[in-house]
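During the no-cost extension, the postdoctoral fellow (Dr. R.K.) reprocessed legacy sequence entries with the updated structure-token encoder. One reprocessed record is reproduced below for audit purposes.
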Amino acid sequence: MQTDIEKFNKEAIEHVWYMRPVFFVSDIQSSIRFYVDKLGFIKKWHEADGKGTVCQVDRGGSEIILCQDSIRNDKSRVFLELSRDAVDQLLKEIAERSVPTKKTWWGYDVLQIEDPDGNELLVCLENLL
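Re-encoded structure tokens follow.
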């Protein structure tokens, strides 16, 4: 008889979930510049040959879909856990690029980065991978 953990592990192998958060933005081009130029993401795809209102950016396998939608002005948040080297690299880059940040608490000490529309990336500063 399988335990619940064995069933979960078997299902996890059989059914991979690929999840990407969607951040609603007011200006897709401005958002792309922020994520690419300030945070070091790469533009993975952009609908309508770069003229559309939906785009995906990626950094180290962390993908975010950016969607310009005048009706949606919600704000989103992602929580990132990185290795110590990755955190050190990010801290160096945001200092060089003058990206505003603040240290705060969200279950852990985190570095909060807000995009131009107020979407938040919370980078865990404790128990680094």
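The domain at 18-124 is CATH 3.10.180.10 (2,3-Dihydroxybiphenyl 1,2-Dioxygenase; domain 1). The radius of gyration is 17 Å. The remaining legacy entries will be reprocessed before the final report is submitted.
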